[in-house]
Write a structure and sequence with these properties.
Dna Ligase, domain 1; five-stranded mixed beta sheet; 13 strands; about 425 residues; alpha+beta; globular
Length: about 425
Amino acid sequence: MKPSVFALVDCNNFYASCEKLFRPDLRYTPVVVLSNNDGCVVARSKEAKALGIKMGVPIQHIKAEIRRYGIEVFSSNYTLYGDMSRRVMTTLEALSPRVDVYSIDEAFLDLTGINRVVPFEDFGRQVKDTVYQNVGLSVCVGIAPTRTLAKLANYAAKKYPATGGVVDLTDAIRQRRLMERVPVGEVWGVGRRITARLESLGITTALQLAEADPTTLRNQFSVVLERTARELNGIPCLPWEEAPQPKKQIMCSRSFGQPLTQLKDLEEALAHFATRVCEKLRGGDQFAGEIMVFIRTNPFRPEVPQYSRSVTTRLITPSQDSRVIVDKALELLRSIYRQGYQYAKAGVLVSELVTTSVRQADLFEAEPVETGGGTRSERLMALMDQINRRSRGALTTARQAGNNAYAMRRSHLSPAYTTNWRQLPVVH
């Protein structure tokens, strides 16, 4: 059996790079991308990082720097980022027989045995060049016998420019040499609290974590940290996922661009959130057995009255029908809504998810569950999804119609360069 080899491919400064890609005039300009409602910095170009702009800093705290250095500011454009991510992952799937998408800008590749055809480092450079040629985005590639070491190799590829963005860590001597330099807090899965505890025990580098006694790590921390240490020693403990595990819950929530006080505005928002949840349910061929709705004011404004409530209910029959879940979400909302408050956020969460094969019908259900073409409800929802995919949300529930008082504040939103014909970039 061939020893496992993984590659972690990670897009560099992904959100900021997506914004720069269609703005050649910003090639050398510092760029930051803001969170929902244009609140905090969630992404920075390398130029913005060089200026000392920190992740998570509120936009109002860096207004002076924005003016002084000419920093370009963008609202989060998730439609653009999602489409660019799809293009990157499609390219990777053409290069490797198995791809495990880890996040919007990261994916693991299975490179087991590929060195019989081409050296690992050469293949990594091929991946880097192909993604740049096909998509226009720069990536770094870390290659190693375990996922944790591949993450470490990717860290080195980003940190040390001399690597050219590709690091092969399949050699044990190179592994130890790198782990001697890497702080333990940079190891995948080692958060701030665990880092502090490890440092109190004298474990400050990745190498010291790798050399720690596995039993002690399990007893004093967890089996997860024990596995991390074993992975640092080249022992794969994270099996390859042939298919993503079905979601256990799905949530859609949002902080509003402006506080909402009226029930009708909250109803419009919740109807939109519930509809998005149902689209995700149908996309995963899942049905929800439980619904939770929550609303809250802004806890960071103590000068205004505070209120926060949530309520949960079970459905008699698990459903993915937008009409059913929207109606139930609005019913729950009305039970917890109180006048006199400025609501800053609301959301819908569905849980107790099941697939079609294990869904149990209600004995008194008017429309029995069918096999094959599905129920009338399922056919209607499938048609609705099909139309919306073609027409970008042309069909909605009646409750979603309104003035979008709940809409996010996105004052610096870039065009949908790749998904809207009217917003295609024009070359003059």
